[in-house]
UniProtKB/TrEMBL annotation, chains A, B, C, D:
Its EC number is 2.7.1.90. It comes from Streptomyces bauhiniae. GO terms for cellular component: 6-phosphofructokinase complex. Catalyzes the phosphorylation of D-fructose 6-phosphate, the first committing step of glycolysis. Uses inorganic phosphate (PPi) as phosphoryl donor instead of ATP like common ATP-dependent phosphofructokinases (ATP-PFKs), which renders the reaction reversible, and can thus function both in glycolysis and gluconeogenesis. Consistently, PPi-PFK can replace the enzymes of both the forward (ATP-PFK) and reverse (fructose-bisphosphatase (FBPase)) reactions. Substrate binds at T126, I127, D128, R163, M170, G171, R172, E222, R266, H272, V273, Q274, R275. Homodimer or homotetramer. This is Pyrophosphate--fructose 6-phosphate 1-phosphotransferase. It is an enzyme of class 2 (transferase).
Amino acid sequence: MRVGVLTGGGDCPGLNAVIRAIVRKGVQEYGYDFTGFRDGWRGPLEGRTVPLDIPAVRGILPRGGTILGSSRTNPLNAEDGVRRVRENLAEQGVDALIVIGGEDTLGVAATLYEEHGVPCVGVPKTIDNDLSGTDYTFGFDTAVNIATEAIDRLHTTAESHMRVLVCEVMGRHAGWIALHSGLAGGANVILIPEHRFDLDEVCGWITSRFEAAYAPIVVVAEGAMPSDGEMVLKDESHDSFGHVRLSGVGEWLAKQIEKRTGKEARTTVLGHVQRGGTPSAFDRWLATRFGLHAIDCVHDGDYGKMVALQGTRIVRIPISEATAELKTVDPELYAEAGVFFG
Amino acid sequence: MRVGVLTGGGDCPGLNAVIRAIVRKGVQEYGYDFTGFRDGWRGPLEGRTVPLDIPAVRGILPRGGTILGSSRTNPLNAEDGVRRVRENLAEQGVDALIVIGGEDTLGVAATLYEEHGVPCVGVPKTIDNDLSGTDYTFGFDTAVNIATEAIDRLHTTAESHMRVLVCEVMGRHAGWIALHSGLAGGANVILIPEHRFDLDEVCGWITSRFEAAYAPIVVVAEGAMPSDGEMVLKDESHDSFGHVRLSGVGEWLAKQIEKRTGKEARTTVLGHVQRGGTPSAFDRWLATRFGLHAIDCVHDGDYGKMVALQGTRIVRIPISEATAELKTVDPELYAEAGVFFG
Amino acid sequence: MRVGVLTGGGDCPGLNAVIRAIVRKGVQEYGYDFTGFRDGWRGPLEGRTVPLDIPAVRGILPRGGTILGSSRTNPLNAEDGVRRVRENLAEQGVDALIVIGGEDTLGVAATLYEEHGVPCVGVPKTIDNDLSGTDYTFGFDTAVNIATEAIDRLHTTAESHMRVLVCEVMGRHAGWIALHSGLAGGANVILIPEHRFDLDEVCGWITSRFEAAYAPIVVVAEGAMPSDGEMVLKDESHDSFGHVRLSGVGEWLAKQIEKRTGKEARTTVLGHVQRGGTPSAFDRWLATRFGLHAIDCVHDGDYGKMVALQGTRIVRIPISEATAELKTVDPELYAEAGVFFG
Amino acid sequence: MRVGVLTGGGDCPGLNAVIRAIVRKGVQEYGYDFTGFRDGWRGPLEGRTVPLDIPAVRGILPRGGTILGSSRTNPLNAEDGVRRVRENLAEQGVDALIVIGGEDTLGVAATLYEEHGVPCVGVPKTIDNDLSGTDYTFGFDTAVNIATEAIDRLHTTAESHMRVLVCEVMGRHAGWIALHSGLAGGANVILIPEHRFDLDEVCGWITSRFEAAYAPIVVVAEGAMPSDGEMVLKDESHDSFGHVRLSGVGEWLAKQIEKRTGKEARTTVLGHVQRGGTPSAFDRWLATRFGLHAIDCVHDGDYGKMVALQGTRIVRIPISEATAELKTVDPELYAEAGVFFG
């Protein structure tokens, strides 16, 4: 039995931990061989491989990034893509494919499995935590810890100068990182894509915070938007990974706040720092368990499934279920945080 | 409406976050007044109180420990204890009591509620994560992160000198910290109280690790025990909080390993460092949500209940249910980790 | 004897440690009383004070920011400023003034001492490490650690996607933070204000790094500039603290690199995160020693002096000496780092 | 030109950074070849080598430990040791040897150079910071940061339970780690080997701290001793690296304090955690600069010298000078810290 592994989409702390767990259990318990495909779906599409065995996964558990590289290549959009993928899998003698990725990467796996019978197993990966069917995805906890530590630091500088500090965090379509790090960091305002914000209300919270003789911290997801649509951002282009470039909501917001409240405001855009480096303990644990259960799926011949966390258990759900709908922040959960605003 | 709050048992990162959330929501949304009871159940027993209002909870979110102090006093064991508690609650005008603590502290709340009608709401707290009815307790994630960071550090020193490094972590009756930090830290052996270990097997794993030209890391919970009961520990006394003093399983194990394998072995006992300091983002988030839901219980007059985490939702369960049985590591979960041993 | 204390300019981790050491030694060893002046020189100018005694400095050692607040007010530019400062000092019964600040704040102290006989003692503070006469200033080590940790994180994301990552750090006029964090973080290009960079050379290093199959990290001080002056930044206004707003050299550079090398490039601007939060152990130690020696200066009646670090000793130098000239990066030191470029 | 490199003695964060800098500059600027000797002096003694080139040093900057391994083998004590070392150097074609180590390792280098003409260059390494001739050694700052973070954590648990917490840190003969981390962590008592402590005085400080309603933290170097010599430690054997095993002064002290003050006391022994893991930014910077200057010594044919930090400059001093005398804590410096005791 030979198993192929690929990682697609934006990088995420914990990818290497998944790969290591798959290989360790696959080799030691099931006696499988492995083929690493380079750079996401470009690997099977173009036949780009790397050796993947026990020595290759030594020491990678605590390291961010992915030893397999990543890309956003979609073989379904490539000429003759499905045929080329199947041929390359066959040429490598690959009997099953474990696909670690987000909505797009897994979407390809769902299609290849359902329409073309390619034996795929999925592992969910999104730093934004917005995949359905799983309580959490790895990388998210690391990002939230990094953002929270930054917010902790911003508090002291805000207080010393009695300024507004706006911290822009990741989250184009879902506000999970903003909500969790904002709550954990004691932010006075948290703005998320799921709930259009009212600038007057935001400025009201800021003013009331200053009246209590404290300086406010605003945590804003990069995808948050004002209710009246007046925001003019400096740049909305997308990169080749589908990440929007720094969209500038943080800077725009700081300027609006300065104009309306008369207080000094500064912005920090955390950016890529949130998705690199060593994973948190939780993410290493979750990624490792995902890897162990993914290779079990292969062993059981249970294809078309994705491993997922529900409570403290790892379960299997159809890949297509996970990618059907974005998991956004529930309005009730967001409302719960409102007691800390202002 | 006046609400009393107390924290009992060993300290745990996140206690202050719970207190803050209770007071913020209680004052701002429900208009309640608060009384802080000092040092766990000793507070209501002896009438020891501190003021508890919005200014008192400013800035405490990121701080470890508890501003209310703690103790292991059990009013049920004190002469006339129940009467004294009730009198002191009445004297303070306290209409409801939020009790933040572990098995023992919550056990008192269950009895006072069930047998004496004292209106209590519970918030689960145990760094060891061994309370039933909740997926996680706050403080656990912080402890696991600290232990994992220590294990990361031990790897490099083990490799440089080709020595065995034994890391003893907390966990008298349950191996959660050992299991999670051992998996996250890439330990080569993980020993937990739920599974008596065989010294020959342990030495076998260690020898095979050296044969692969790597140095082994052993993570051992303080309550782990050998299968043949030969362990002679240096000290088994208990402190006034029921914590056993450093029991010495780590040091004992290192000596046994040296004797049997001929390799140098060293022990690090993490001790109190695991339970102090600023909480992780996850623990701040969980503790904050527990606090918000506990005060909601009071508002709903839903007494005798404890808040708990199930998946990503906060639910309410009878306090007595949580304290009925210790939540230990499932044998299957422990077996899952075995692929990394040796 | 009553001693006044003020902190001026941008905040810096370690300010509270200085204040604590001054008060602890002043009260316990010399029996002094203290007056805290609020918000830098605005305090003495407008008679804004806060109580400053042992309880006021409890627990502040590990906290960033300054309990005294800060501002950039210059009494020498205020109408009748010198007279008002002297009157307020006299009214408070202040016999000596300890001034903690950077070039501007200390410059005022030098003038007040030399031209008006105000008994001042200086403590150097600049996160940029660009004050003459002292090997290091506190806050710098913390900033370098934060920047280095960020660079560590960026490496993994750069490698996973084979992208250029540009990290913009503080340093308007001096490249100390860029040089130290760049060396410590293993950057492939380090650009500092003291040395105008050649864009072709930078792109050459980047290309050669990719040729070795690695992704490059560029660390750029916010004040770095290209040799041919073609850079058009988005914003060059100054805030009320004299900090330039995000000048945009990082983003500009990323775009130039993309255009010239055809590789994807991303920018992270660390911003205020570098100057907030808990100080590193080195900064707490240095700040504490500065505080102890500053109060000794007062005790010795040794005014007009600033404490400074030379090797491992704390010495006293004339304040005017420290502010005479900016301490920039020596060309030889910068050249030493060049072996790691590319 | 072929240069040999070895690392001896206990491991220390920054060793890999030195090795990397030596190789990068040696290969790129001087065109040298390198031979890595394994496990300290055992390498040249037994002819144990590893390849050492640019690929071998990729990615090692942030990693603790040493890729060359270490040992405490002394060739001067081995039969025919000097001859064997010279023969192995000749056989490998090694023209110069860079020796990275502490007192013992460098002492061998001094003898081999002075008495046998072996062309050696030294790089000082001691986590304890007790080598003469250099302001700091790398690894020390990392150890102090780790100890300080631990002390920060112990504060909150001490306060919550009003207990004494004793933190035992490294430092057999010199109290640098205890002094720096104790000052940085706000310890209430700091005990170092250079100054025998009086148990009554220590208990006096502890009692006065409790009287101020705070819980005391005691930082004690492992080599600290009471003035009346009554201490009975549990174990004083040395390991093969000359490190004493956990000597037990911390635990002994906690018991004495409990007995004399009636307060609960707990001990944390940080142990090996202090010397492993990723180096701090300062240590990476210092280690890198040491490496660059060491290879310059080789290039200049300046043998018998050790690189050293004086202020912010790297200088060269005779190796024998550095190992002549232990650098201990100056009584005046220790007295300076006394203002914070109690």
